[in-house]
Amino acid sequence: MSNGGSGFGFGIVCLARFDACANLAIMKPGEPDQTQRRVAIYFVVMPAVILAPLFFAFWLWWRSSPGGDEFARLMNTGKGYYEQGEAAKAVEAFQKAVSLQPTHPDALLNLANACLLADQSGRAIQFAQQVLSMEANSAAACYIAGCANMRLRKFEEAVKFIQQAKDLDPKVNAVSLQLGRAQMELGHYEDAVREFSEIIQFAPDYPSANFFLGQALLRLGRQEEAKQALERHQQLITGQPNPPADAATFERCVYTQMRVPFRLEQPDRRGVKVVFTDATQTAFGIANRNFHGPIGVLDINHRGANDLFVGEGDGGFRVLLNTNGTFQAHGEPVLGKPGVKYTRCLVGDVNNDRYEDVVVLSDQGLRLFKFATNGAASRAQYSRAPQPRWQRRQSLFQRHHPNFRCPSFPHRSQPGRRR
Asked: Is the pTM of this model over 0.70?
């Protein structure tokens, strides 16, 4: 647009499309701003995106270990009922434990064993197979499933499961016994004899193995061998308690033992009461008035006691013999050099004579004390601290020129002097 009365003008040029201008014309002032809406959505969605994984992780943790104390209590309660022979109560306790942690192998194995003891063989197989679905190499689950099938007189299935258990660990005698019994029920007497003989080879005093070996040999017509096996069985059980000859007796082994969660013993909440007392008077008596560091620990005559080598007075030392926890001064004081500041004490066998020596360091050098077996200092050596190079050269010069006197021997390394 231009101003008619002046020599200049200004104009506004719209670069937008015509339909955009139309849209602007029809917008209502009260319509929400799209930018503000996006910002609001952003601040709502982003916290949800961040917090959702955290809540999910917390939920997984809570589901994976709910009621840890309650789970342990139920496992121990069921173990007590099982060992007392109260199978029904053991099943109930282990069922509650499994409801808390449905995928815990030990809880499922305990429940399977309790069901086996309660003569609920079908359920025992069910829980054992749940364990096998998680741990295919669980010998305990294979054994429980095999024993349960034996109770159901499904001997072919029993042989299959018990053979798997034996393949995983052939050293459990009860597994071989149950495998031999299943083979006998199938009429495989040679296989049964092999299993029972293997047990007797490693455990000759296993009564059940000798009994079933005799039975298998009788069915094979080997009368003399059967007679010997049955006689050994009779000898083994004579004078011994006669356990009931039921299925649970033959099944009992490491795989039928209850498993409970390991719980690390916690420290006492009250803590351990500690009382600090000054035992100086008790340990040193009235002789402790003038002892000080540095201190060395040694065993004077190799009697297994910790004797002490301590400073005494001004530059002196003393050996303190340990007698039942009481330290007493031994012999005469070991003389040092008055006015010297001793800072370190080292104990060791300097000359390889199998007895301790003591080296004491000071600001003026070191002193070596050698001891006899009676605790007396046999010899003492003193070594002065090394001199600076300029002092050594000055001493050497004056040694060769005794008549030359000068207040100081200048040297470039002498402190405070320049050449």
From this structure: no
